[in-house]
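Archive entry. Fields below.
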Amino acid sequence: MKTIIRLIALLAIVNCNGTAQQKSDYDLVQRFQSLTKSVANSIDQTKTVQECAEANTSIDAIEKEFGDEKILINKANYPDGYDKTIEQLRGKLLIRQRDLGVIESQIVRITELEVKISELSDQVKKLTSQNETLMAQVQQLTANVKKLSGDLFNAATPMDSLRSMIVKLRQGLQERDALIFALTDSLFMQYDKNVGDMKDVEKQGLISKIDRHGIIGNVKRSIIDNITFLESTQLKGSDLVTLVRQQKRFQSQWIGLSTKLASLYLSGKSKKSEVAFVDSMLATWGDKVDGAMWRSLNMLFKEKGFILKEFKNGDDFVMTFIAFFDDQIQNINKESEDSRYKLFSNFNESLWQTDLKATWLPALIELQKITETQKKELEAKYDRWHASVMPGASWLTYILIVLGVLLIAIVGVWIFRKGPKTT
Amino acid sequence: MKAMFVPIGISFFILAGCSSLILKPADFAWPVESVLSVDSQGKVQSERYSFSVDVKALLFAETQDSVNILKINLRIIRDVKGYYFITASQFKNVYVFEQTVGGLKLKNKILVAQSGLTEPALNQRVPYVQLVNGKNPALLLTEEGVFEGEKK
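PREDICTED_STRUCTURE:
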């Protein structure tokens, strides 16, 4: 019987050995002691409801981390064990809350937000590391493709994996950007009031949380990553439009946040300059992504065989495009009707319908690069060019109709003349 | 008859007084190891278990040096039977001691790492003592030696 018990005990221990790297019980107990001591100290120093909620979350986190080791800690953490230590922390916090006049429901709401903040913060860290790996892979693969083909995004090069990786990275970057602003929102929501109405101690608390979660650092990192992505991938067309959209969204979110940060950092010069630095980084990102977009649109015309004067902004683009339409309408090169018609058809099928009308013009309006009136102006010019290259369309149609009627008549007469068969 | 009864009675009382009294079962297991620094006198002292012991001889046995002893942290745990298991970083062996009058007496010396332990830790895994050493597989020890796993 003793042997069986020994064997079962051994199996259980061996099983544990196989599943994970063994840790030192001593280290675990030391960590428990150090964390509980630090939370106890922070409870002594709490001054606001948010700090109480933070302490509450810390106790929850300790319970979550060490709950499974309760038996060991009860024996090893002399003399209070696990249960009594946690109980003492909760009691200490309750007394502190009473001293500060904090209402329990406030704590619950803020604690929930604190949990959310902690989760969001973890997700940001995870995504940062994932994106870092993906970025390195994209850069490596891009370099390989460049070596092979000498021309990025050439249809002949095998780039499926690179494309899917780029899409994944773009999604990762967007997700991370969204998470940072969600995290920031949750931080401000904990205080449930405008920055101007906060007490100094609350402002300090919020500033320290913003610093702890590295909000400004994360925003900077996002901008840098997005610029690196833009420069590494050399995207075109609708992909670029998506990036411009992303930049605009980020910018509008940052404007909302920077206003709040500016009122928080009223006295701190270095912090204020950091906010201004982010503004300038964001402007650089905007310039780069805009530049890439216009370059891509210029390239599109060139690739389809239409030579336009280079344009660098919306007004420039509309002006150049209208000049192109006018040249075609007025036929300044004195081309034959046939070649004019062919040129128009080519433009219509390979550029206007497929790219400009479907993607670019709506996107340029959405991104406020051109106005609705400018778009209508371009469409009107297009219609005029269309009409100008097909003046014979009506008489050609009449001839075809007459020919068709004649053909039907001839066939009818021929059938009638044959008459019914007689036997 | 009376003359015979008296010596027999005396012998009975003498024998009863000499027989050993054993208290069983006993559990001497410490829940976690103690990590104790060697002081300038070559002693380690545990506040929790209220004992101190001179370890110069042990350090000399392991390192051949009983002078440079100040930075050594000994890891000590007592198993369920009452044996003391002692090791430290850079040690090749785990030493098993049993309590004796006024000291500890070596019971066994278990070779566990030819090139020395890097991050040793002793865990209580009744009826064994588990030796953890960084990412290396953990070993289960008894006073007799390694019970599970292979010696390095």
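CURATOR_NOTE: Confidence is low (pLDDT under 50) at residues 1-19 of chain A.
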